[in-house]
Amino acid sequence: MSLIVQKYGGTSVGTVERIEAVASKVAGYRAAGHDLVVVVSAMSGETNRLIALANQIQAVPTPREMDTLVSTGEQVTIALLTMALHQLGCDARSYTGGQVQILTDSAHTKARIETIDVHRIEADLDQGRVVVVAGFQGVDAEGNITTLGRGGSDTTAVALAAALQAHECQIYTDVDGVYTTDPRVVAKARRLDRITFEEMLEMASQGSKVLQIRSVEFAGKYKVPLRVLSSFKDGPGTLISLEDNDEMEKPVVSGIAFNRDEAKLTILGIPDNPGVAYKILGPVSQANIEVDVIVQNVSQDGTTSLTFTVHRNDMAKARKILEQVAQQIGPCQVITDDRIVKVSLVGVGMRSHAGVAARMFEALARDNINIQMITTSEIKITVVIEEKYLELAVRALHSAFELDQPDRTE
Amino acid sequence: MSLIVQKYGGTSVGTVERIEAVASKVAGYRAAGHDLVVVVSAMSGETNRLIALANQIQAVPTPREMDTLVSTGEQVTIALLTMALHQLGCDARSYTGGQVQILTDSAHTKARIETIDVHRIEADLDQGRVVVVAGFQGVDAEGNITTLGRGGSDTTAVALAAALQAHECQIYTDVDGVYTTDPRVVAKARRLDRITFEEMLEMASQGSKVLQIRSVEFAGKYKVPLRVLSSFKDGPGTLISLEDNDEMEKPVVSGIAFNRDEAKLTILGIPDNPGVAYKILGPVSQANIEVDVIVQNVSQDGTTSLTFTVHRNDMAKARKILEQVAQQIGPCQVITDDRIVKVSLVGVGMRSHAGVAARMFEALARDNINIQMITTSEIKITVVIEEKYLELAVRALHSAFELDQPDRTE
C-alpha cells in the first residue's frame, strides 16, 4: 500500500469512453490497496475550442480572463471522471486548483506554483477516497484563477506528489515509455526501463517530447520518482529517478536525441581581438534569441570565425543582427545554413567511461557523415551534421552503442 | 449616476457576436455614468451539452460533481464578456460565484443563497470597473461549488442587487417586457410599463414565464425594483416594483393569465359529514399532488360533491387515490376531466373596486362560455372553463377590460 499520484493527459480523457477507461484503471489501483490522487487535463480539443472563442473577441485576450476561461476545461474533466468513479462504486471527490489551494504567483497563463495545502486531500485519502484534481491550474493569493501554461498538468502532478511525499508520480500518455531514440527513425528503438532525471532532461530538450521539461526538473529537484506509462496499453513504462549509486555497472549511453529545428550561422574574417565573441553574441541574446552550440575557430592570419546554432525560426532575425555587427567590427562575412540537425548521445555512464566520443566519431565516419560542430557535457556528446544524414546517423549510432540490446552493461 | 445590476440570459449570450452586443450595451451604460454589475448565464445550449456528458456516465449524476461540471458554463461566459468589454476599452473584471463569495447552503443542484460578501465588488466599482459575475452558482461553507438550479441566474442578479442596494435590477431576456396577456393568443396584448410584485407572481405562476417565480419573490421581499427588458431591441421594458401608494388611480386589471396544464376531478354523492373534505384531500396531498382550485357544493339530500383541479400529469394518480377513498366513505362516484383550462384576471386595483367579478362573468356569458369553477383572491379572479373556449375567453376579457388601451385608469 502506497500513495500514488497519477496524471492523465488530454488524449487519455478525450471522450466519455476514455474517461470511463481511466476510471476503471484508477479503481483497479484503489482496489489493490493504493491511495490515489489523480490529476487530469482538459478533454483533448477543449482547450483549443476555448482559446478560439477568446481569439474571436480579442486578438490578445486579457491573461486573467484567459485563465478563468481555459481552466473550465479541466474542471469539466474532474467532474466527469469523479462521476465515472462513483459509477464503479469507487468513492472519490473532485477539486479545482483553487479548491485544493494550489497557490501560485499571479503571472497569469504561466504561473508558478508556490505552495499546496494538502490537508483537504489527506483528509479525503484517510477516508478512503480517490482525490481527483484539475491539472494546469491554481489560484493566486487574491483568489484569482491562474494557469501554469500549456502542458502544466504534468507540473501539477509532480508538485502534488512532492507535497504529499508520494511513492511515485505516474504520467499516463499516448506512448508507453521513454525510448532509446525516436522509434519512427529507428525501428529497433527500445523502451528504457529506467532513466535518470538528468538524462531525461537531455532527451526531452531534444525532441523526445514525452514529458514537459519543467516537470522533470521539478521532479528531480524534489526527488519524486516519475514513471511514464501508456493510458492505452498495460506495461511498466519508464521510471525516471535519481541515479542509483548501488548499481555498479551502468549503460554508457542511454539514448540518442536529435533536433531538426536548428539553423547555423557563421561569421568569417573577424579580427581576433579580446571581447569579439561578446560583441557578436551580445546583440543576439539581447534580441531574445537563444543560442545553442557555439564554436570559435582557432585564429589564422589574425582573423577568426565564430559559428553558432539557433532555432530555425530565429535564423533570419539573427542574420540581420550579425550583418549589422559585421559592419561595425570590420570586413566580415556572414553565412547561414538551415539544412543542419543536432544529434546527441545521452548517458550518465559517460561520466566514468572514456572513449565514447571516439567511438561516436568512428561510427559516423564509417558512413561518411561529416561532423560540422561538436559540443560535449558530462552526460552528453552533441554533433551538428547535414540534415540529409539525420536518419543514417541516428541508426548508425543506435547500432554502434548496441542500444537495441536489452540490459547491456559495459 | 446609479448602481444597476443587469442580468443576461443564455440566449442573450448564445454566440460570440451576441456577447459582443451585450458588451457594447453594458459599455454604453457605463459611459452614461452608471455603476454596473452584470450577471450572465451559460451560453445557450452549453448547460444541456454538459448535462448530456454527465448522463452518458451516470443515470443520476452525483449532485456535487454535477455542480462542478455545469458551473463551468457561466465561467466561460464571464471570461468572454469581460474580454469583450476590454476590447471596447471598458475596464471590467469577472468573478465566479465562489470568487465573489456567494455563500449558499450545501443543497447541491438546488442551493439557496445565504450571504454575499460585496466588499470585493464594491472595491472594483470604486475603481470604475464593470463587475461581471457568473449567475446560477455559489459556494458552500466548505468551498464546494453549488448551483441554484435552472434559471437561478435571475436569483443571483436579484440577490446581488439586494446586497448592493442597487437602484434597479434589469433582467434582459428575449421578450421586451411583461404583457397584459400572451401575445400569441391576443394580438392586441400590450406591454405593461409597470406591474407590482404581487401581480407578477400571479401572472408568472400561470404561464407568463418571463421571470423565475423565485427571483420575483426574492425581489419583493428585499424591495429590489426589477425591470424586464429585451436584449435584442431597445425599449423601457416593464418595471416590477412595490405598489406605488401615491398613485391615486390604478388600473383595475393589469393582465390576464391562463394555464392549460390543469385537470379537474369531482367526487359525487359524498355523505355530508364534518371532516369529509379532509378525508378526501388528505390522501391526495400525502401523495405530493398539488391541489389548486377547490369547490365544495352546497349539500343536497344529505350528500355533497367536491371538485378540485390538479396538474394534468397528476390526474391519473389522483383518480386512483379518489377511487380508494370513495370505497371507504360510501357509494360515491369519481369523474375526471382533462379538457379544462384556468383563466385569471390579475390586478392590484381590484382591492378597491367592486364589480370586477360581475363584469368578468358578463363578458364570458356574452360569448356563451360556461364557468365551471370560480375562485378569488384579493388581486385575482380565476375561472375554470372548457379548454376549447380558452382563446375566446382571453380575448373577450382582454377587450372587456380595455387592456389594449394604454394608460387606462378607472
Strand content of chain A: 25-35%
Overall body shape of chain A? globular
CATH superfamily of the largest domain in chain A: Acetylglutamate kinase-like
Please identify the oligomeric state: homodimer
What structural class do you assign from the helix and strand content of chain A?
Answer: alpha/beta
Q: Determine the most extensive contact between two protein chains.
A: A-B, 36 and 36 residues
Q: Order of strands across the biggest sheet of chain A?
A: 3-6-2-1-9-11-12-10
Could you give the count of β-strands of chain A?
A: 20
CATH architectural name of the largest domain in chain A: 3-Layer(aba) Sandwich
What's the helix count of chain A?
11
Instruction: Supply the number of structural domains of chain A.
Output: 2
What portion of residues of chain A is helical?
Answer: 25-40%
Instruction: Indicate the CATH class of the largest domain in chain A.
Output: Alpha Beta
Distance between the termini of chain A: 36 Å
Which regions of chain A contain 5 or more consecutive residues with pLDDT less than 50?
A: none
What about the largest sheet of chain A? 8 strands, mixed
Rounded to the nearest angstrom, the radius of gyration of chain A is 24 Å
The third-level CATH topology of the largest domain in chain A is Carbamate kinase
Commentary on this structure:
Chain A has 410 residues and is of the alpha/beta class. Chain A has two domains: 3-174, Acetylglutamate kinase-like (Carbamate kinase, 3-Layer(aba) Sandwich); 245-410, VC0802-like (2-Layer Sandwich), CATH 3.30.2130.10. Chain A has eleven helices and 20 strands. An eight-stranded mixed β-sheet of chain A has the order 3-6-2-1-9-11-12-10, with helices on both faces. A four-stranded antiparallel β-sheet of chain A has the order 13-18-20-19, with helices on both faces. A four-stranded antiparallel β-sheet of chain A has the order 15-16-14-17, covered by helices on one side. The longest helix of chain A is centred in the N-terminal third of the chain and has 25 residues, at 63-87. Chain A is globular. The model of chain A has no long low-confidence stretch (mean pLDDT 90). The interface between A and B is large, with 36 and 36 residues.
